[in-house]
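Human:
Take a look at this sequence-structure pair and walk me through the tokens.
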Amino acid sequence: MSRRSVLAAGAALTLATPALAQGNARVLRFVPEGNLANPDPVWTTTTIARNHGAMIWDTLFGLDAQFEPQPQMLAGHEVSDDRLTWRFTLREGLAFSDGETVRPADCIASIQRWARRRPLGQTLLARTEAMTPIDDTRFEIRLNKPYGLIPRALADSCFMMPERIAKTDPFQQIREYIGSGPFTFPVNEWVSGSRAVYRRNPAYRPREGAPSFMAGGKVAHFDRVEWLVMPDSATAMGALQNGEVDWIQRPDYDLLASMRKMRNVRVAVHDKVGVIGMLGINHIHPPFDNPKLLRAVLSAVNQADYMAAAVGAEPELFHIPCGVFTPGLPMATDAGMQALTGPRDLAQSRRLVQDSGYKGERVVVMSPSDYPVQAAFAQVTVDLLKQLGLNIEFASMDWGTLVQRRTSKEPPEKGGWSLFTTTYEGLTVADPSSHVPLRGNGPQGWFGWPTSPRLEALRDEWLDAPNLADQKRIAGEMQVLAFEEVPFIPVGQIFNPTAYRTDIVDVVPASFPIFWGVKRA
């Protein structure tokens, strides 16, 4: 029986199940995209850790619904005429969840830890002479070179933590979760693989105004939010129908038609930017340390196959062709796209594999069993690589295990890996400034660690470009180079649906779940 048949059978069963317990008015029960395996949003780049981080920490700036950075924890900021000195003033009344006042020293330590792991932050560090407190509410950043993207950088999941926590090495995991945001995280109630719990933070002082994506007033209307891990999509759908849960972040695409027929359930697409599906590639070990082999694989990739496997009968929820930058946003370009849109010829691609010098090395493909879309990508990838004559080992595991394993720089035969399937949020990969998979900074880069001085030089040129036209030109050059060096392989743009009970109202439109503003009618 096919995967789609099994899911359809499960859907039929859940539709016939009688209603059970209804939701508590002050508790929101939510099914996240996967397991919160690690709650440190600096140490890991997973979206679920970022979603968790946004619950319990706030940021100095937040992106609004037009994706423009707005002051969030800040009352305001000033920039010197030479653009080298930035001074920031904190809002009055800011406190951490333990009651301690948020200080400039906390902000500086938080920025410094975050910056070592994020592209926008790494650029900030490279251009910073000093970060120093001025008084109890103000601090300044002095630059050695102008960096106009500072507000956007500080809006990029740069969460404000107490100084003692933020001084943790960014390559080590924090052990304490004192927050600055609208919810607290009682660690004693967190059970990895089962649930995470959040409580309304009485010490949090929301900004005035309506919420607008990650900016504006972050008012928590629920006393308690429970994230309940349900890897089986049909089970989650049944729980939503019965009122046992209020909200499913990402219902399975195969179940959307059934869910749209349910009473008291709404299926919505708040995601207007989407995510980019991609193949993450290990560049430091054979066989994918060989650019010729990577280009041979790229020549055989058919993005339509990936979208059909992942999204199926919901063509309005994906977009191809998809290059290295998010389609529909300013840096998207047709430059070099023939690498993905040209005729696919498997026989020719097999010859390219043979000509590349491939010696039959094992290729370990990691697949997240609890993420249906990424798992579908993995199945297509394994089938394709086998057709190309590669020696494949398929390694299926839950997302938390994959996230841990992908940090390993050991060779595949010693517990490492060759390739994994994932998605990256469209806003994050919209341009070179924050595009982690497009970095060429080797050991300091994204998992796979490609080294490309040319990509890094073009990125620097983009950051200093005087106008949008030059930025677009450079983005085109970067895409052409990416199809030559293949730091990763894009497989399509997907727009994620979400589903919730109809008594859940005022959901803030966003590409990921936001828990302020939302309430029960």
Summary: Residues 1-23 have pLDDT under 50 and may be disordered.
